[in-house]
Amino acid sequence: MDWSFLRRELPYESGTLGAAERRDLTRRTRSDELLDGLQVWIDAAQGTQGRVRSLREAVLSVGRELASAP
């Protein structure tokens, strides 16, 4: 997804932040990146969980039909 339309000059880009502020901003930016990556993994795990549930229900349904067959 292209978010470039939201891009605006950040304080650290214009040179108005000190070294300590830049380090803090860099840490927060890295934390945000890690959290975004974690969210991707969580979304993938939830998708897998849904597929496993569907498969389990299908197996149980087949098992019930086989058990009730004459």
UniProtKB/TrEMBL annotation:
Designated name of the protein: Uncharacterized protein
